[in-house]
Write a structure and sequence with these properties.
The chain is of the alpha/beta class and 316 residues long. It has a single domain, classed as Purple Acid Phosphatase, chain A, domain 2. It is built from seven helices and 16 strands. β8, α6 and β9 form a beta-alpha-beta unit. α6 packs parallel to α7. The chain is globular and about 60 Å long. 43% of the residues are buried.
């Protein structure tokens, strides 16, 4: 019998004030490590750690220190972050980052590809965006103590930013998701599907989210992790009987909220997140199942004057 713990967090939303707070005196270097000291023990006790990278590593901006801009064609925020964040995330034991979200094209095609290059350089696996058609056909499967965990990621959109090749970004298209789950299940014991969907700042899932979740479970997902609303939405655990008559547990987190963020629209809930922990077991016959789910609520503490604030992610 083998048992592992998979932990997942929501959006790593690296807004300009957060980046500025990590800037070291005397230059263009950054240290994000202190931001996460308070939750490090909760992250380090998982066998597999997953998060959503709601920014890009598009390289140093033209104007020193100006990592957050506005997309000229839409007016939406365009995110970029110093490469030092990748080192921090690696030291926090992040194993996989999902990159399919509405900000993945904020740095254009070159920014998307550079982001994946930076993650590769730091030994962090990723899923949801690709640099080539061949890469888009490869699946992220992680062997965790003999349990093979497959992770897929998709987004509803890219903030109206076009992308020249379909393989660059995994969009939420049910036919594609169904075929991907069927294929990855040939290699994986436990399948997690990460969905960037829903309405921002809404604390309950809408009918479209529920419909997508029902379909993805029908295709064979064991767990679904949601992001994008920037606030927490419910976690639901259910029991289903598979084709062999075996009752299996499955879980959906409609939105894991913001793991790190400034306060958005003066909404305190946008600085709330969740570390979702899933206990997965594989028995002597090779059958893998979800046996337990637990939650650690987190918040972002921020102190100081505007322009000189500190940000710390801490357990609630």
């Amino acid at each position: 019998m083998t048992t592992i713990t998979i932990a997942a967090v929501g959006d790593l939303l690296m807004k300009a004030p957060i980046i500025a707070s990590a800037r070291l005196d005397g230059g263009g270097q950054y240290d994000f490590d202190p931001m996460f000291e308070g939750v490090k023990p909760q992250l380090h006790n998982a066998n597999l750690l997953i998060g959503n990278l709601e920014t890009t590593f598009s390289g140093k901006p033209r104007k020193a220190g100006k990592y957050e801009t506005r997309a000229p064609h839409t007016g939406y925020p365009a995110f970029n972050c110093p490469d030092e964040l990748a080192g921090t995330l690696k030291r926090l034991n992040f194993d996989v980052l999902t990159t399919a979200n509405n900000h993945c094209m904020d740095g254009g095609t070159s920014g998307l590809k550079r982001t994946l290059n930076v993650l590769d350089r730091h030994g962090i696996k990723h899923t949801g965006t690709s640099r080539s058609a061949a890469e888009s056909r490869r699946f992220t499967v992680v062997d965790v103590n003999g349990i093979k965990v497959g992770i897929l990621a998709y987004t509803t959109g890219t903030n109206s930013t076009p992308y020249p090749k379909a393989y660059l970004v995994n969009r939420i298209r049910l036919g594609r998701i169904a075929s991907d789950i069927k294929a990855i299940k040939r290699r994986a014991d436990f399948v997690i599907v990460c969905l960037h969907f829903g309405l921002e700042f809404h604390r309950t899932p809408n009918a479209r989210q529920k419909s997508i979740v029902n379909a993805v479970f029908k295709y064979g997902a064991d767990a679904i992790l949601g992001a994008h609303p920037h606030v927490l939405q419910p976690v639901r655990v259910s029991n289903v009987r598979d084709r062999r008559g075996i009752v299996k547990k499955r879980v959906v987190a409609y939105s894991l909220g913001n793991f790190v963020s400034t306060r958005l629209r003066k909404n305190v809930h946008t600085q709330r997140g969740l570390i979702l922990k899933m206990k997965v077991e594989k028995n002597e016959k090779g059958r893998t199942r979800l046996v337990g789910v637990s939650k650690v609520h987190t918040k972002v503490d921020s102190h100081g004057e505007i322009g000189n604030r500190t940000y710390r992610v801490v357990p609630m």
